[in-house]
Amino acid sequence: MLSAVPPSLTPVLASLAASSHPEARSGDALLVGRLEAAERLGHQPGRLAALYGLASEALARCEARLPEVLRTDGPADVRAAAEHLLSGGGKRIRPLLLALSARACQPAGAPPLLPAPLCALMVAAELVHTATLLHDDVLDVSEVRRGQETARMRWGNSVSVLAGDFVLTRALEEVLGSGIAGAMPAILKTIHSMIAGEALQLSLRGRGDVRLSDYLEVVEGKTAALFAFCGRAGALCAAAAAPPESRAATAAHADVLADYARHLGQAFQIVDDVLDIDGDPAQLGKSVLSDLREGKLTLPVLLALESRPALREHIQLPPQSLADDSLPEPTVVLLRSALGDSDATRRARQQAAAEAERGCARLSALPPGPYRDALWHVADELVQRNR
C-alpha cells in the first residue's frame, strides 16, 4: 500500500458530491457504495472499476470511437488484424490516466472539458499502445494475447507488422485532429522514445551483462514514455478548455502530470515483469515466463542474480543461439530456481511501490479535489494488481 494514498476514501467521496463535474455528480450513491465496499474488502478489481467510473463518460466515448477509427479505408486483412487485438479488450489504463489527469488540472468551478479533443487524445494513446503490442508479438513470437491467439498467429507476421503501422498512423491522425496545442510534438517524442526503448531491449536479449540501469532505460522508453504522454496530454486538454486568464497556470501542470505518470509507468512495467514470473496465466490472458524464455533480464531476474551471479555466464549466449527467440530450457530452469530461492519478486514489487510513491508526491502541486485523489488510488491499484 502506498503511504501517499489517503488512509480512507471518505474525503474523496465527500468531495465527489460537491464536484462541479457532471460525471462526478451522476450516480454518486452507487459510486460511493462501490468505493467503500472495495476499500473494506480490499477487492482490487471492484475498486479500480469504481475509479473508471469517475471518467465513465469520457471512457465510453473513447470505447465507441476506437473501432470507428479502424473502419476507414485500408487493406481488409490489416484492418481485421488490428480489430482482432482491440476486440480482446484491455485495461484502457492509458485513456483512464489521460482523462483523470485532465480533470485533476481543473480548479473547482472550471468550465467543462472539450469532449471531442479529449476523446481524440484518449483514443490516440490506446492506439499507440495497440500498435506496439502488434509489433511486440512479432518480435517476441507470441502466440497468445488477452486470452486469444495473437494477430500474427492468424494472419502472419507481415500482416501484424503492417497492422501496427496502420494503427499508429490512425493514432497520429487523431492527435492532429484534436487541435490541442503541443500534443503532436509530445506524441512524436513519445514514439521516438518507445522505439529507442524497444531497440535497446532487443539488443540486450540473451546477454548476461545487463545492468539495472539498462533495464530502467528500457522501461523508461517502452512503457513510461507513453504513460508520461497521457499525463501531459491531459493537462494540455485542460488548458485548452480553461479561460484565457488561467490557461497558462493550467498548462504549467503538464510537467507535474508527466512526471507522475512516468513514475507510474515504470511501476506498472515492473509489476508486469513480476507477473510474468508468478502470475496466473488464466488471469493474465497470456503465458508466463515468456520474458525469461526470450532472454529478457527483467528486474526480478536481475535481483535474483545478485545472490547467484555465476548464473550470468549461462545467459551470455552467442547471437545465433537466440535464432529461435528463446533461451535453452536448462538455462530457464536455472533462472527459475534462482528466483524461487530468492525474494526477488517481493523486492521488485517494493521498487514498483517506491516508483509510484515518487510519482504521487508530485500530485501535491495540483488543485485539491476528487480527481487528484483518484490518481493516488490508480497508482495504488496498479502496484497491487495481480493481472
Quick rundown:
This protein has 387 residues and is mostly helical.
Characterization of this structure:
This protein has a single domain (58-384), classed as Farnesyl Diphosphate Synthase, CATH 1.10.600.10. The longest helix is centred in the middle third of the chain and has 30 residues, at 212-241. The two termini are 17 Å apart. Strands 1-2 form a two-stranded antiparallel ribbon. The protein has 21 helices and two strands. β1 (144-145) and β2 (148-149) form a beta hairpin. α3 runs antiparallel to α4, α10 (157-178) runs antiparallel to α11 (183-204) and α14 (253-278) packs parallel to α21 (370-384). By secondary structure, it is mostly helical.
Strand arrangement within the widest β-sheet reads 1-2
**Count of individual helical segments:** 21
Report the end-to-end length measured between terminal Cα atoms.
17 Å
In the CATH scheme, the class would be Mainly Alpha
